[in-house]
Amino acid sequence: MWFVRMRQCGADVVELLHDGCPVACVADAPFGYVNAFKSHVNVGFFYGAFLEDPAGLLGGSGKRMRHVKLQPGLQLNVAALRDLIDAAYADIRARLDDAPSSR
After folding, report:
1. Which domains does the chain have, with CATH numbers?
2. What is the mean pLDDT of the chain?
3. pLDDT confidence of 103, banded at 50, 70, 90?
4. In what order do the strands lie in the sheet with 21-26?
5. Are the C-beta atoms of residues 58 and 48 closer than 8 Å to each other?
6. At CA 34, angle to CA 64 and CA 87, rounded to 5?
7. Which of 7, 14, 21, 63 is least crowded, fewest Cβ atoms below 10 Å from its Cβ?
8. Which whole-number Å values give the CA distances from 61 to 22, 29, 39, 49, in the listed order?
């Protein structure tokens, strides 16, 4: 469900597999992923440390990456997770638009 949401962010979103995990990218720049584990699912963001997270959903302590851990039986702020996905897409678009051209 959440990876489908990532795909719906724009016509420029492509899906790649990285270490067996589906990754949502714009061109070859990743912005999100979904990874399933035995007891939970992570919805992750490659530049999550830079995203606004007023609902406090993001976990992790990496330099850039953050994730939302989804566990059975726990309530999820669906609107806040949708907002994070949209923000991650907008962030990668801005990063690509600001990147120097290779021409």
Report:
1. 2-98 (3.90.1150.200)
2. 93
3. very low
4. 13-18, 21-26, 29-36, 41-45, 66-70
5. yes
6. 55
7. 63
8. 22, 21, 21, 8
Query: 41, 37, 11, 36: which is closest to 24 by C-alpha?
Result: 11
Q: Left, alpha or beta for 20 (phi > 0: left; psi -120 to 50: alpha)?
A: left
> Is residue 52 very low, low, confident or very high in pLDDT (cuts 50, 70, 90)?
very high
Give CA separation, 32 vs 9, 72, 73, 102, in Å: 11, 21, 24, 24
Q: What is the pTM of this model?
A: 0.92
Contact (Cβ atoms closer than 8 angstroms) between residue 67 and residue 43 = yes
